[in-house]
């Protein structure tokens, strides 16, 4: 009888121990300042499994998408990742190496966390020093990250001495509930496919152009893309969903030469449609139908400045093609140099979200060239949740002298030869706070004394008072040599693509200047841009491409 009772007691203890499970809540902190988060990190662990999740995720209240991690304790090298995209869509993957990727070094350091005796292990991940504090006081293993899963129960994870995940509560529970526990997944894919799907789910991706040709020819056609100026300008209507306040937006362009060997001016632009007439009207009906700008140099320049009833284009990104990237990669072989296959240009354009959110808009790309092969480009707009510092509810297109319709009758901006330079009036319906002028400038004139190679001071005047003055100049062009396989080479060992220029290099973006103009009262104002443009030499001449957009609250 005594042996029977002893057997029963042992069985009950064994069942109890085997069925023991724990719920551990964690909080994050940085420099000992607790991060405010109403959805704390939560770990469920038992002899059978470990689940890394969050409090809201266990109640299906976490915002989509959210990720859950599982360790199968019957096969502790099996680490599952599950992302829930919506109530009826999820994707999982199995990683059998993640738990053993980092070598842990055990130390003799100890301390108490929540009354449990903890020991320290250390490692390094991507040059970050990691401390893991774990206890063996409990009959389970687990961790809030993949590190230390098999040491014991990790109660604190410290990165670089200041970023911490610390247990705030250890609660014994009967079992890991079925709706949280490891299970069979409806769709399981390889790790690379999984990571790609998860990454793309975190932002809005709006494809605009895919391997479209920009060339000097009427032969290139496409059903979904409008082409202007003998094919050197392409435009597409795209729908942008309503986006949350504080989001960030990026344009990304990939360019390859398709036969054109030269460095060319390029622009990604957005049609401003806040007035009765837009730049698109001129593209369709002829540039001479748009308002002209004249400052006394004897020329008329269509569509470049804001007038009552007309708005020029917003320039999202100014870029410059390199000398023949991709198409001419086999023309010159140099020891120790491997030419790039394409150029990727990517730029933050969050300040324009207020004019595209929840709307259908026209976005275009221009590359000035006279080549039948021209260039090939792919363009996309991506929008990411976050806390952008570049959110402006009001955006006003004021001027843009980049002649994107060069092959359609829009003249080079040579008017800076006059003292007046570029002058434009605009009117504010209401008082404006924290006004910024988003200003892009590049100088051109491609011979030794042309403005491309001579530094020239830019002066910006607001209501006839000097607001900002600087000399735009790039000295880093040699950094992009591997994008320029067909660049001219000189006897002194330099290449044309190495040479410093007036705020641009072959194969780069020209970033905007954000010029603070302060608060402006409602009513009429003026902006004047003065640049001492160089004199022509024979048939060669200098010109400046400048664009200006007002951002304000």
Automatic annotation (TrEMBL):
The keyword Disulfide bond applies. SUPFAM superfamilies: PHM/PNGase F. Pfam families: N-glycanase_C, N-glycanase_N, PNGase_F-II_N. GO terms for molecular function: oxidoreductase activity, acting on paired donors, with incorporation or reduction of molecular oxygen, reduced ascorbate as one donor, and incorporation of one atom of oxygen. This is Peptide-N-glycosidase F N-terminal domain-containing protein. Residues 205-383 form the Peptide-N-glycosidase F N-terminal domain. Keywords: Disulfide bond. InterPro entries: Cu2_ascorb_mOase-like_C (IPR014784), PHM/PNGase_F_dom_sf (IPR008977), PngaseF_C (IPR015197), PngaseF_N (IPR015196), PngaseF_N_sf (IPR043022). The keyword RNA-binding does not apply.
């Amino acid at each position: 009888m005594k042996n029977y009772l002893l057997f029963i007691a042992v069985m009950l203890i064994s069942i109890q121990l085997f069925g023991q499970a724990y719920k551990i809540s964690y909080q994050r902190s940085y420099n000992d300042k607790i991060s405010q988060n109403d959805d704390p990190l939560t770990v469920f662990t038992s002899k059978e499994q470990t689940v890394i999740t969050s409090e809201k995720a266990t109640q299906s209240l976490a915002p989509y998408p959210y990720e859950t991690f599982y360790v199968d304790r019957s096969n502790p090298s099996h680490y599952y990742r599950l992302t829930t995209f919506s109530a009826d869509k999820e994707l999982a993957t199995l990683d059998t190496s993640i738990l053993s990727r980092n070598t842990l070094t055990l130390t003799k350091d100890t301390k108490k966390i929540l009354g449990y005796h903890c020991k320290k292990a250390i490692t390094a991940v991507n040059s970050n020093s990691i401390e893991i504090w774990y206890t063996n006081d409990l009959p389970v293993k687990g961790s809030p990250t993949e590190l230390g899963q098999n040491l014991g129960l990790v109660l604190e994870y410290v990165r670089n001495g200041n970023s911490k995940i610390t247990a705030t509560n250890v609660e014994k529970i009967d079992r890991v509930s079925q709706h949280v526990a490891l299970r069979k997944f409806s769709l399981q894919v390889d790790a690379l496919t999984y990571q790609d799907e998860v990454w793309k789910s975190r932002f809005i991706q709006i494809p605009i152009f895919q391997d479209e040709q920009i060339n000097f020819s009427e032969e290139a056609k496409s059903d979904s893309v409008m082409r202007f100026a003998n094919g050197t300008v392409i435009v597409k209507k795209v729908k942008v969903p309503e986006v949350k306040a504080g989001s960030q937006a990026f344009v990304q362009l990939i360019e390859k030469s398709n036969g054109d060997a030269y460095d060319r001016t390029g622009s990604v632009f957005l049609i401003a449609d806040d007035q009765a007439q837009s730049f698109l009207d001129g593209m369709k009906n002829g540039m001479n139908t748009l308002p002209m700008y004249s400052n006394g140099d004897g020329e008329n320049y269509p569509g470049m400045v804001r007038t009552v009833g007309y708005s020029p284009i917003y320039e999202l990104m100014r870029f410059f093609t390199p000398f023949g990237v991709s198409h001419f990669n086999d023309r010159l072989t140099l020891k120790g140099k491997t030419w790039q296959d394409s150029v990727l240009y990517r730029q933050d354009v969050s300040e324009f979200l207020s004019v595209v959110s929840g709307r259908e808009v026209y976005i275009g790309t221009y590359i000035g060239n006279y080549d039948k092969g021209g260039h090939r480009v792919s363009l996309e707009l991506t929008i990411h949740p976050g806390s952008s510092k570049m959110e402006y509810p009001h955006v006003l297109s004021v001027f843009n002298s980049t002649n994107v319709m060069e092959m359609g009758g829009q003249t080079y901006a040579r008017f800076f030869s006059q003292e007046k330079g570029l002058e434009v009036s605009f009117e504010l319906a209401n008082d404006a706070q924290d006004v910024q002028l988003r200003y892009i400038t590049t100088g051109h004139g491609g011979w030794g004394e042309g403005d491309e190679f001579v530094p020239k001071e830019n002066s910006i005047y607001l209501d006839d008072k000097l607001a900002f003055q600087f000399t735009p100049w790039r000295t880093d062009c040699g950094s992009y040599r591997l994008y320029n396989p067909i660049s001219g080479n000189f006897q002194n060992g330099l290449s044309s693509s190495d040479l410093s220029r007036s705020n641009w290099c072959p194969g780069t973006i020209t970033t905007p200047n954000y010029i603070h103009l302060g608060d402006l009262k409602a009513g009429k104002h003026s902006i004047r841009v003065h640049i001492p443009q160089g004199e022509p030499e024979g048939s060669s001449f200098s010109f400046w491409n400048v664009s200006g957009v007002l951002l304000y609250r």
